[in-house]
Amino acid sequence: MSDSKTLRLGRMRDDDRPYGVWKFLLVILVFSAVILVPYGWLITSAFRDTSGAWTLSNWSFLVKETQLRRGIHLPPAIKPLMSSFSFAIIMAASVVTITVPAAYALSRTEFQGRRLMAKLLIVLDAFPQVALLTSFIMLLSKMHLVNKLIGVVFLKVAMYLPGSIWLMKGFFDHISWDIEWASIVDGASRFKTFLRIIVPAAKPGISVILVNSFLSGWGEYILINLFISGHSATMSSFIGAMMDGEDGRYLVPPGVLAAACFFYIIPVIITFAVSQKTLLQVRQGGSKQ
Amino acid sequence: MSEPMIRLENIGKSYDGRTYAVRGMDLTIEKGDFVALLGPSGCGKSTTLMMLCGLYRPTEGSIYFNGRYVNNILPKDRNIGMVFQSYALYPNMNVFENIAFPLKQLKHLSKREIRKRVQEVANTVKIPELLHRMPSQLSGGQQQRVAMCRALVKDPDILLLDEPMSNLDARLKLEIRDEIKKLQERLALTAIIVTHDQEEAMAISSHIAVIDQGSIQQYAAPDVLYNRPKNLFVASFIGTPPMNFITGTLEPMGEDFVCITAGGNITIPAALIDCDLLTSRSVVLGIRPHNFKVVQSRENALTLSVDYIEHLGKENLYRCQMAETSIRVITAIDERYPTDEPLSVQIDLKMLNIFDEGSGDNITCDVVV
């Protein structure tokens, strides 16, 4: 068993490579072009000025004010950047903290109304959030959270939970009962078993929830744009403000917009780079199914 | 009188409140016994084990360990070790941490003491070199041994094994079976193994409880089960190739009886039968394949037609037909009979079991065991 694993995981030598792989690569490249070309454009134009010469001046939005119209300036991107980070981190942390125990309970315990709750989760997950916007406004004003990011985080988390709980429940369902039972026979409490045995076994699932909710928070635009006034609440509204001209025209040079967009996706790339190993990890525990 | 190690009294378990997975089970296990719970899948044997280890609470009845009522005692306080079918190693911990896990739950042990005891048990099970590996780096047999270590590290009174060898290949199965048996004897453990593999049960245990439909059909030593099965279920479940069953009518004939079957009439001495037979009765004769003797005469013998022969190496197996019933006859390797002629066989009366067709109960006298 271990031998075959080493073989599979070991570096593939050139002569092991299946013959004619380049044909497949070509096909993949052609289809990916639809996605790759805009990204290529984005990255190169982030470093060109309007005349096409290479420059770093597009990146001044990070530290200096950017003029949108006469008399209207965007502040340096530092503050929206920090807001975006805290928004995404608070969102991810809240989602994981609530999702993991809730999904465990739904997956592994027996209580009154469990089935009903599971069904409601699916229904709630299917609701389009736009349909709830008016009630959100009422809710936020009742809670005195209008125009505050924390209020939007609250809404985001609430909207996000049904889907993530359902997904996480699926991960827990696939963990064998045997290791949980073994841990209880070994003398651990149910809670300790959850923390020491089940949560580590569900790590790939938890990573998926963590990364996805972080990225969802990072990319949130609609709710922030609706509930937060001003142009620089987060990075998404910061970029939105740059594009907010009449007749669909940009208020800043395309290079600046490209630089801002490129900057906006860097954390996404980093997040995937860091987490891909865990995300791709198939459950490979010591238990045979 | 000293209390038995384990006593089950009228144990029943129902998951839905209507149907019972186990019902009316009584079982007494003495210290040092190795008991197999044997039965087809879904017979309730695993449920019984789950109640013994305390993961399920019996719906009715009482469980006593050493005379102590344990129905409401948590698994951790029952002083048991358990090996699961999937081994249930904790995938995020290495072998050492896996084995140490039960000890770490006992608050009073020092790190040094834990290390010492893990080393000891790893030496006993012969895996000291694996302690730093992760479970995913182990073969099935090694995982099994680690699971054994974890079950034994707390020095339990009772070892519970839930199909511990069903994931191993045939050769390894024999090896591990041997080792479990030796360990159990050396450590003087009381062990209970759940299995559907009768050969495994026969080989490893001192007593076997054959379970079907939630209740114990027979609880006896392996040779008793084999030679004197209590009813038709046990008779058909134990033994490969299975016992032959021949239906017939038993009728009084002078002092003795005669059994009229489709393949011939067999005289059966009265001493063989355990009940008063005044009128004729439908019975099933149970004969193991190697308890036939091929004879020339047709008198007091069954006449069979031979379908084909399986050469098993150490013996020959004749697949025969008697009316609608298929019969297996095993003969010595040097005995060869033609397939195109009828075969006359006599029954070894000492090894014959007679079952009442209606109730399925064995009505043979226990004259020979």
What this model shows, in words?
The complex is a heterodimer of chains A (289) and B (369). Chain A is mostly helical. Chain A has a single domain, classed as MetI-like (MetI-like fold). Helix content of chain A is 66%, strand content 2%. Chain A has 12 helices and 2 strands; from the N terminus they run H-H-E-E-H-H-H-H-H-H-H-H-H-H. Chain A has a two-stranded antiparallel sheet. In chain A, a hairpin with a 2-residue loop joins strand 1 and strand 2. In chain A, helix 4 crosses helix 6. The radius of gyration of chain A is 24 Å and the shape is globular. The two termini of chain A are 15 Å apart. With 369 residues, chain B is an alpha+beta fold. Chain B has 2 domains: 232 residues, 3-Layer(aba) Sandwich (Rossmann fold); 113 residues, Nucleic acid-binding proteins (OB fold (Dihydrolipoamide Acetyltransferase, E2P)), CATH 2.40.50. In chain B, the strands form 4 sheets. In chain B, strands 6-7-8-3-9-10 form a 6-stranded mixed beta sheet, sandwiched between helices. In chain B, strand 1 and strand 2 form a beta hairpin. In chain B, helix 2 runs parallel beside helix 4 and helix 3 packs across helix 4. The longest helix of chain B has 17 residues. Chain B is elongated. Chains A and B meet through helix 7 and helix 8 of A and strand 6, helix 2 and helix 4 of B.
Provide a concise account of the structure shown.
The complex is a heterodimer of chains A (289) and B (369). Chain A is mainly alpha-helical.
Shape of chain A: globular
CATH topology of chain A: MetI-like fold
* Physical arrangement of strands within the biggest beta sheet of chain A: 1-2
CATH class of chain A: Mainly Alpha
Which CATH class of the largest domain in chain B is shown?
Alpha Beta
N/C terminus separation of chain B:
29 Å
Strand content of chain A: under 5%
CATH architect. name of chain A = Orthogonal Bundle
- Low-pLDDT windows of residues of chain A: 1-10, 282-289
Superfamily at the CATH H level of the largest domain in chain B?
P-loop containing nucleotide triphosphate hydrolases
Number of strands of chain B: 20
Number of helices of chain A: 12
What is the number of E strands of chain A? 2
Please tell me how large the radius of gyration of chain A is: 24 Å
Give the SSE string of chain A.
HHEEHHHHHHHHHH
